[in-house]
Structure formats: structure tokens, C-alpha cells
Amino acid sequence: MKNNNRAFLAIILIFLMHGLYGQSSTITLWKDSVIGAIWNETTHTVAYGKKDANGYYKIYLSDSLGNNEQPLTYSAWDPNRHQWAEEWHPSGDYLFCYVEKTAYVAEAGHTRIPDDAIPGYGGYTDIWIIKRDGSQAWQLTNLPNNYDNGVIHGAISPDGTKFAWSQRIQAPNVWDLNLAAGAYIMQVADFIDGPTPSIANIQSFQPDGLLAANELESISQDNTTLSFYSTYETQNIFNTPIYTINMNTLQITQLTTESFAQAPTYTPDGGHFVYMTGKDCDIFPLEIQGADWWIMDTLGNNKNRISRMNVLNDPQSVNHYRLCGSISFMGPHTLLGGVMTNPFGLTGYTVKVQINPTIGIGEETGPGFYFYPNPSADALTVHLKNKTEKESIEIYNSYGELVKEKQFEGSTIIDITHLSSGIYFLNLKSNPGYSQKFIKR
């Protein structure tokens, strides 16, 4: 009978581990064959891009479920050019977008093709702003019409007063690892709302004045800080640390050291970044390295994995290359994220991600603490929500026996190397009614 009980418990453990292994998030398909989804809270509208019958990316709007899809375009835009939704103004009245120039001008040394202006490649494009109903649009930049110029990756400040973008100043050079994607400067402008919307007071940022890939992603809540990735130190497009730059002091802070990390997006509370990285991603046979979503605080600490699309045989994985890209938050723990299925071009789909609150975004309710990682083999990091009071954290095994207790303030690291593999429960001594489960590997 004892052996039967052990076998039954082992089966239950395997089942629970399978269900909890990727529990940092729940990921579901939001809409297939679309990319770059951007949520606007004011109007509950999503803008995104997808290819038309001729292979050009166009802008579409839908509701929060991806239904009631409608195209968004402007009568003066050439239908045989790429158009891309970049950022909503918080009011929902305007959409910042990138539009490919119409005229194909002859150049020395380069022959323009449609792929040059694919969103994310950015050649031959300008910034526009369009009304949500498509009735009016205004061109905000007029860059030179050549292969050295274009725009990629924009960001709107939370209050809608600033718009930022990465602007190409030198065309890609496939023979130079640093400039294989081109050289970019980061531009930040005041957005002037009115009968004719415009931008003014443009500031330029180019770390150390070097030619490099500088791709910005978001602006802090107080309008002082830009997040971006860059090759200005590594000189290698396959080695892209994430940085922040204080726009007042010009202080640059490096947040990641792994070779491939991009798209650092502030969480709604401003306390963390969600970003993409190839760290700990399996490389599947005959495929290159993909990327998953991670989260860290704004100083680059407390990194925790959100998605596991590039982990062999994980429930979130299809055992093929996936590149988790730029995101848009719909709420404190909910985001829309683009997933590319091909390393070239812009082919993929959009998912909805529910992030488990226990990894520390926003104001969680319930147990009064959050912790990570889960599962863990050696240690747990525990954070109190109320950081001003001393608490005792308790660990119980699956038989209800207290196996460890630790008193601390704010946060602590708990050594669990001595615990046997299995299921355990954490709770605060002051609030034993709320327990959280974890797996000791």
C-alpha cells in the first residue's frame, strides 16, 4: 500500500509540475498573421499591421478581442507602399505611424526595392499622424529620399507630450557587424496638439557620438529616461545590451549583459521593464536562436523569465524558432506581444500574455508577498508588498509540516538546497490563510 501511495503521489507531482513549469505566464493566440499590435485604453482599440494581397503592410483597427476589423488609411497615401501603426496618442484621437515615401528616386550604389521599407527595416519612411477615423493625416518628418534615411521604433510618453523614434543616418552594411542593420540616432520631440498636429524641439541622442544601432523602445513616466538597445559598446549587432539614458544628465546605464536583448518596455507602474532576449533559449535543429520575454526592474536587477516558447518540449513551445518581439500593455499584468516565426522579414502572429502577479508587477492582492523563480533548485527571492514591516515567511511541505522559517524586512533570499524535491507552500506567519505553491527541483 505504501508503494502504491508513493506512485500515486509521484503521478500527481508530475502532473502539477507540467502545469506549473511555465507558470510565469499564460499565453494564448490573439490574432494570426498580424504583428505590431498596440492597445489604446481610452478607446479600447487595437491597431496592428498585416500584409495586403500585394505584400505591402497596412494598418488595421479592431476591438480588444481582435473582432470588428477595419482598415485605417489616408486618401493621399499610395496603396502600393508600406504603412505601419507605431504608437497611439493616449487620447486615442491620433495614431502615430510610419509611411513609405511614394517616389522611387534613382540613387548611385543602391536600387530601391519594397523590402527596404518593411517595418523594422525602416528605409525610405517618414513619421505621420492620422486621426482614428482616417479623415485627416499630417506628415511630421520629411527625411531625404535615399537609402541612408528612414525611421524605426517609436515611443510615446505616458502623458502624450513627447514622441521619440530611432532615425537612420547610415544605410546597412552587411560586411560590418556593427552596422549590419544600419546606424541610428535617437530623436525625442515635443508633440504639439492642435488644428495641425506637429512636433518641435527635437533632441538627438547618439551614445559616445559613435555610429551604431540605437533602437529605442519606451519613455519613463516622468519623461526623463529613454530605454533602448545599442551596439555602441559591443560593435556587434548580435550582441545588443539594453540601456537607459537620462535625457537631462545624459547618464547611460547598462541593464543587461546577455548577448542578445532588445525592446525594453516600461510596465504600466513604471517599476519594471519587459524585454526580449535569447538568454537560455534552446536552438532547434537547423534553426537560429529565438527570443523569449523576460522582466527586470528598472536598474536591471531581479530578472525573471515570462515566456518559454524557445524551451524544448515546454508546454508553451512548438519546438521551432520563435522571436518574442515588441509588446503593448493592456493592463498591469496583461499585454499583447508580437511573435515572429521567421528570422527574416516580418512574419508572425500576435499573442495575449497574462503575467503571473507573483513575479512582481504592479500591486498584487492576496498573500502580501511575491517570489521567484518557480520552480527552483537552490534559492527563492521573496519580496514583501509592505516593505516597512518585519515579517516571517514560512515554508511547509506537502504534509503540512513546517520545514523552514525566516524573519526579514523588504526582501530576502531563502536557501532551499537542503529541501528534497517536491511541492512546498509559502505563507506569511501573520497571514497563514494565503499560501503560494512552489516546486523544489
Annotated CATH homologous superfamily of the largest domain: TolB, C-terminal domain
Quaternary structure? single chain
Q: Span between N and C termini?
A: 26 Å
What sort of overall outline do the alpha carbons produce when their principal axes are compared?
elongated
Radius of gyration: 24 Å
CATH architecture of the largest domain: 6 Propeller
Low-confidence stretches: 1-22, 362-366
Number of strands: 31
Number of domains: 2
How would you write the strand order of the largest sheet?
1-24-23-22
Mean pLDDT, rounded to whole units? 89
Structural classification:
mainly beta
The number of helical runs is: 1
Strand content: over 45%
Helicity level, as a percent range? Answer: under 10%
According to CATH, what is the topology of the largest domain?
Neuraminidase
* Top CATH class of the largest domain: Mainly Beta
Major sheet summary line:
4 strands, antiparallel
Write up this protein.
By secondary structure, this protein is mainly beta. It folds into two domains: 25-359, Neuraminidase, CATH 2.120.10; 365-440, Immunoglobulin-like (Sandwich). The chain is built from one helix and 31 strands. The protein has a four-stranded antiparallel beta sheet with strand order 1-24-23-22, with no helix packed on it. A hairpin with a 5-residue loop joins strand 18 and strand 19. The chain starts with a helix and ends with a strand.
